[in-house]
Amino acid sequence: MSNTITRPKTILVTGATGKQGGAVVEALANNEEFQILAVTRNASGAAAKGLLERFPNIKIVEGNMDDAPKLFEAAKDAGNKNIWGVFSVQVSEGKGVTFDSEVRQGKAMIDEAIKNKVETFVYSSVERGGDEKSWTNQTPVDHFKSKYFIEQHLRDNADKSMKWTILRPVALMENMKPGFETTVFFTALKNALGQTPMQWVATRDVGRYAEKAFVKPERWDRKAVGLAGEEMTFSQLSDQLKSSTGSPAGTTYGILASALRWAIPEIARMLDWFASDGYRADIGKLRESDSELLTFKKWLEKDSQFTAKA
């Protein structure tokens, strides 16, 4: 009988206190095959502490993707010196975030992973019109276009020693939550889409597909897949909200939606792209091998912040 103890494979998860990174931590945290290093800008912050309380077997790594070499050094100090896997997702919207900063961070994570002989790299991008079209379609939306360039960098620079998978989620269901911001966005979305359907995915499913890629990297090597669990018009979205919560999708004065488009041109470009081109993940094909993909109804029951109808 062998007494050899197999050490768990170390996976560095960026954006661990955010929507997608948090979903990946949740999907992997209880898998004894892996040691999770959860990256956060502030290890002493409430979000990091909350994550550690939920998953006490992970390790928190304080780091900034603006300095990828320093981040990898901090990760190696926190866990196994050999980082086996990386889940990479960049902040693409918000204060101080630019097209250039996202591309720079995304490319730097790839370069540092190659330098550190990472074996499995999973990158979360965005769906841009189908699995094949996404390879060539930058779109006019800056925070979609940035991911196109990061994908190209990964495909062009990773040799066979590093397996890689690209996940391309569509709109995240978790971006829908009670409150005035969602009401204004819903109004702008309704006005832009009309009766054009739009695809959505739960972050829980992004986490599950990242887990699939880490558990069976050979099967997922050099694959890019669009992720979606639901396709619906705004009217159907509103009807399902009413059925599940008792209230339809809240909307407000059109002038507020117009103000949103004027104040943030990137949102206007994105809404127009949703209406003219839109996401094209193959939901039917995904469901052939995955019955767990959450529909909007199931997401409302399981994960949303909306209050269920009594």
UniProtKB/TrEMBL annotation:
GO terms for cellular component: nucleus. Transmembrane segments: none annotated. It comes from Glarea lozoyensis (strain ATCC 20868 / MF5171). It holds the Pfam family NmrA. Belongs to the NmrA-type oxidoreductase family. InterPro entries: NAD(P)-bd_dom_sf (IPR036291), NmrA-like (IPR008030), NmrA-like_oxidored (IPR051164). Gene3D superfamilies: NAD(P)-binding Rossmann-like Domain, UDP-galactose 4-epimerase, domain 1. PANTHER family: NITROGEN METABOLITE REPRESSION PROTEIN NMRA FAMILY MEMBER, NMRA FAMILY PROTEIN. Residues 9-275 form the NmrA-like domain. The keyword NADP applies. Keywords: NADP. This is NAD(P)-binding Rossmann-fold containing protein.
